[in-house]
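Researcher: Re-running this chain for the archive, since the previous output was lost when a drive failed. Same request as before.
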Amino acid sequence: MPESAYGPTNQCIGLGKVLLDRGHRVVFAAEASWAGRLEPFGFVEALVDLAEPDPEAGEEAAGQFWIDFINQTAPEFAKPTRDQLATFVQPTYAALVDGARYAEPRLRLLIAEHRPDVIVEDNVVSFPALMTSDAAFVRIVSCNPLEVRGDDVPPVFSGYPTADRSGWTDFLDEFDRVHADTWAQWNAWCQEQGAPPLPPREFMHASPTCNLYVFPRELDYTDARPLDDTWYRIDSSVRETDEDYTVPPELADRPDGSGLLYLSLGSLGGADVGLMQRLVDVLATSHHRVIVSMGPRADELRLPDGMAGAATVPQTKVIPQVDLVITHGGNNTTTESMHFGKPMIVLPLFWDQYDNAQRVDELGYGVRLATYSFTDAELLDAVDRLLADTALRERMAAIGTDIRARDGLRKGAEIIERVGLERRADS
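Model: Regenerated structure tokens:
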């Protein structure tokens, strides 16, 4: 059961397809707007509403609820991360826990119907039905792993440096202030459904036996925040279901000294047409070529000569062919860029994207820019500087080779398979 946004769902599709190819039956309890999008891969769709359906609504885009939610709250993304705790993070958690409460009866029915050996959840809030059944329970963290808190790592959602603790306490105090009531009510409700108490500040339970997180070793925080032996890192989880992509001839045949860039703010960030158009317009003044993932409002964007794009592009087939990725810092795009050895310019919008942007910048794998206040010169200089840094590009290529050799997708699928087979053998 993935969270309804494209990032977690695509990540689970990748793992699920490997399990399917290994002979297992894979059931997706995805949110209802994904109807018809999972079955073609060979999965069983056992879909779940997270709110009362609107009988007058037409067919929605996959994850439409979150696209709408982001559109409504986008003005908050220009604020400092501390201020977003009250205006974005808390309302997001409130919406997520409301959805989990609504889905609980349906999930219990689905579990009784399908009788799974192992249940896998990739989300940021608990669904007690999933973890209190007779099946083995595996949690996936496909956000930045600061979601697993520790005293010696920055607070999740802050985007604060690891080397400067001056703002950590204040940020955590503000988190506690704005989330106290929501967390207390959620903790009580989870226990009423049979789940154990939640750790302080956390809205999601860890599995007592098996937890996966998707993050490259080269970016990880384990030196500062060691994890116990129930946690397994998979360095990347790059799905193999994307169709092939051929770079258009007008972009492939580019002048000497120009690079090929990939621009994506993800399925949610791409809904900010003003920001997307500004990025397009600034990059159009350079001599570089650009492939653009235009997002859900693609028909409102204008691409000049030297650029090509579509509402969605097969990202895992595009990134290997480009020289530089300009991204919002979503965990999928961040880990995929590392997987293919590409430096990044990161313009974070919300949630863990600030943490990924900061980590990429402070470790020297790219540049973090202020998403709504960068100057044209800052963006263009960052592009030229990263493309001209031959040592960095060679270093990133070597890192990508190492990450691909670690084959996180199959490692993750094999761990899930082992957990399920062990539970079946014990039952």
